[in-house]
Amino acid sequence: MGSRGAGMADGRFEPYTEAGVRRVPCARCGKPGHACWNICADSVGSRTRYRALCAACDVALNVLVMRWAFGDTREADIAAYSAKVLGEQNSPAGNTGEMV
């Protein structure tokens, strides 16, 4: 697990705008934000919290969820998303979904 682990940044109660998410660090690793995420189980009994994720953590989380939901049937979609977000050179077809 990354340096933030269970102490993941608190986030906020309103989703970040496209420009706003780039102004805050990734809740997991501290790199510049890229995408806004919320974790449903994190807000049971309270308000939804939104957090920024950097591009690498966003891709890793998407890979993890895609493989959990669809097994290995959506590898082309995973590769396309990785290429779109990280660029061709940083998106190997064998991406394991391991968080940075």
What descriptors fit this protein?
100 residues; alpha+beta; two-stranded antiparallel sheet; disordered N terminus
Write the topology of this structure.
Layout lengths: L17 H4 L13 E4 L11 E4 L1 H16 L4 H12 L14
Helix pairs in contact: 2-3
Write up this protein.
With 100 residues, the protein is of the alpha+beta class. 32% of the residues lie in helices and 8% in strands. The chain contains three helices and two strands, in the order H-E-E-H-H. It has helices at 18-21, 55-70, 75-86, and strands spanning 35-38, 50-53. Strands 1-2 form a two-stranded antiparallel ribbon. Helix 2 packs antiparallel against helix 3. It is globular, with a radius of gyration of 14 Å. Mean pLDDT is 82; it is low at 1-7 and 91-95.
Low-confidence stretches: 1-7, 91-95
Q: Roughly how many Å is the radius of gyration?
A: 14 Å
Proportion of beta-strand residues: 5-15%
Specify the overall morphology: globular
Strand numbers in spatial order across the main sheet: 1-2
Strand and helix order: HEEHH
**Structural class label:** alpha+beta
Mean pLDDT: 82
How far apart lie the N and C ends? Answer: 9 Å
Tally the beta strands. 2
Query: Major beta sheet, specifics?
Result: 2 strands, antiparallel
Number of continuous helical runs: 3
What is the helix content? 25-40%
